[in-house]
Amino acid sequence: MTSPLERVVRKGFENKVPRTPDDFAAVWKSSPERAALVNEVDNYNQQYQPNGQHLQEFKESRRAQQSKHQRVTSPYTLSYVGQVKLCLRRGFWRLKGDPSLTFTQLFGNFMMALVISSVFYNLPQTTDSFFSRSAILFFAILLNAFGSALEVRALLNSSEPR
Q: Cα separation of 121 and 139, whole Å?
């Protein structure tokens, strides 16, 4: 906005457009939009005082939402154990609802494990094979990382209207 090389000014407005950052700041500070914004912020700050009634109401409602095993000062609604339980339950529900993706990934991982282990089988037990072993391990990790892309595709397909 303040770079003269990137700013495009319409013809006839060359002398009306601010040219420097200080000019832009001065125009903003004298604008009715800034005055309306400052007024709106002041009204909000008067209505919702930092340590006023609304803060106490918020704290009470937040505590009511939190799990009974969660610390009062914690910003989280559930404890770590509760979150893990919910994620596990959701995972089992997904597996029960559509096991094809999980079984396909397990079968593919089993086949790739056989292929990768066969490459390890004939490698020498010396440091000469260090680079080959690290490349194979990297490939195995990368394969599993890209395997999660199937889940994203499945989620996108399931959310499309039919």
A: 16
Does residue 82 belong to any structural domain of this protein? Answer: no
pLDDT of amino acid 149: 73
Report d(CA 1, CA 7) in Å as an integer: 6
Domains identified in the chain, total number: 1
Asked if the structure places residue 124 within a domain, the reply is yes
Q: How far apart are CA 137 and CA 64, in angstroms?
A: 48
Is residue 4 included in any domain, yes or no? no
- Helix, strand, coil percent values for the chain (each to nearest 5): 70, 0, 30
User: Does residue 146 lie in a domain region?
Assistant: yes
Report mean pLDDT in 10-residue bins for the chain, 162 residues: 72 80 89 96 87 80 78 79 90 87 84 86 83 87 79 65 52
As a whole number of angstroms, the distance between CA 127 and CA 137 comes to 15
Domain region containing 123? 98-159
Which pTM was predicted? 0.41
